[in-house]
Fold this protein.
Amino acid sequence: MMSYPGESERITQRQIGALPFRKGADGSFSVLLVTSRESRRWVIPKGWPMKGRKPFEAAAREAYEEAGVIGHIGKRPLGFFIYEKRLKNRDFVLCQVKVFPLEVRKQLKRWPEQNEREQRWFTPPDAADAVAEPGLAAIIRAALKRDDLKQA
């Protein structure tokens, strides 16, 4: 395992995220990903915890703001992944993202960040392949194997 100088002293910041999904008429699932604003990588809607909101409520809010979707958010996380977030000053911070399933019931025509991001529906295997973070890819794959999305 590779380590970086000072890595053990690095503080991990906590974030929350939503894994938006929908079930098709044929019973197959689709996963919605959005691009990040800076690097344009495919990611899930995620952000910082919000004062006065439970983590799953904050995750649902991020899905609305970043992807324009509303639905039923699961109260139990599917898991978490770690990634390096680039800050505006070009520094990096290590973030641990707790991921909640969001069954999309409505996709809005307008939402706060629609001009800042792209969005696309993927098959679950394609979504797992599209994301750069191995931990997030593993969550997408595992959620479908355990049928977690069906119970969200």
Notes: The chain has three helices and eight strands. Helices lie at 55-67, 124-130, 134-145.
